[in-house]
Design brief:
By secondary structure, the chain is an alpha+beta fold. It has helices at residues 7-12, 21-43, 51-74, 79-95, 108-125, 129-156, 172-181, 212-217, 220-227, and strands at residues 98-99, 105-106, 159-166, 184-191, 201-209, 233-239. The protein has two domains: 7-155, no CATH class; 158-239, Alpha-Beta Plaits, CATH 3.30.70.260. It contains nine helices and six strands, in the order ααααββααβαββααβ. The strands form two sheets. Strands 4-5-3-6 form a four-stranded antiparallel beta sheet. The chain has a two-stranded antiparallel ribbon with strand order 1-2. The chain starts with 6 loop residues before the first helix and ends with a strand.
């Protein structure tokens, strides 16, 4: 049985394979690009996991392969401890996520970042110092530079979610009618039980922009600001 050889790796040459620093930079760069593309696509469709989350996950996958290859080659017999460490960090990461009272997932990016940083720690322990520094730099860039781009893409997408507080539930129909007249389409409406007994009717609403005029000229912030002028709305804001 012949061993599969990647055409792109063969075209680029020996420097693109193995665990050399050039190959590591290539792998991380490609992972960054692909993760960003998928993250952008998801963030434009109101999904909670956007740019940074997908990039952090895909970079972590690259790190796992790099680390595994080094450990197996060195035959140091520490893979069991490494696996136990990753399981422990994964458990901590899961517990760092939670739902807010507005049905928003909080701590998702932090959970993934925690796991990714754990991989960097394993690399340092495995004496992969330069690779660990390169990975750390990529992670820092992801966490520091991508939020602005992520917010920009979300604010320009055709889909968004809002947290809506009405002074009375009877005004919900009025709100739906106004939304439709503006050229917006409601995908889903969910009553938020966390505000029961507060005197307010609170909803999480998924909205799509169907008007070509709105798509061209209006951002989510401008649309929400206009809706906020309705006298029966106590509070309205976009769910990020």
């Amino acid at each position: 049985m012949t061993t599969y050889q990647d055409p792109l790796a063969m075209f680029l040459g020996p420097w693109a394979t193995g665990s050399g620093i050039e190959a590591v930079i290539l792998k991380l760069g490609l992972a960054l690009l692909l993760g960003a593309i998928i993250g952008w696509e998801r963030s434009t469709k109101r999904h909670s996991a956007g740019f940074r989350t997908f990039i952090l996950v895909i970079i972590s996958g690259v790190c796992c392969i790099l680390l595994e290859g080094h450990i197996l080659a060195a035959s140091k017999g520490i893979h069991i401890l490494s696996a136990a460490f990753l399981i422990a960090v994964s458990s901590i990461s899961i517990h760092s996520m939670h739902y807010s009272s507005r049905n928003e997932i909080k701590g998702l990016t932090t959970a993934i970042a925690l796991w990714a940083v754990g991989l960097v720690g394993l690399m340092i322990g495995a004496e992969l110092y330069v690779i660990a520094l390169v990975v750390f730099a990529v992670l820092m860039c992801t966490l520091s530079w991508f939020p602005k781009m992520e917010r920009y893409c979300k604010n320009r997408s055709n889909h968004f979610e809002i947290h809506l507080e009405l002074t009375n539930s009877q005004y919900l129909q009025n709100f739906v009618t106004t939304i439709r007249r503006l050229g917006l389409f409601i995908d889903d409406i969910e009553l938020n039980p966390a505000y029961a007994g507060s005197g307010l009717s609170v909803y999480s609403i998924s909205i799509s922009i169907s008007s070509a005029e709105l798509k061209k000229y209006k951002t989510h912030a401008e649309i929400i600001k206009a809706l906020g002028t309705l006298d029966y709305i106590y509070h309205i804001e976009e769910m990020l």
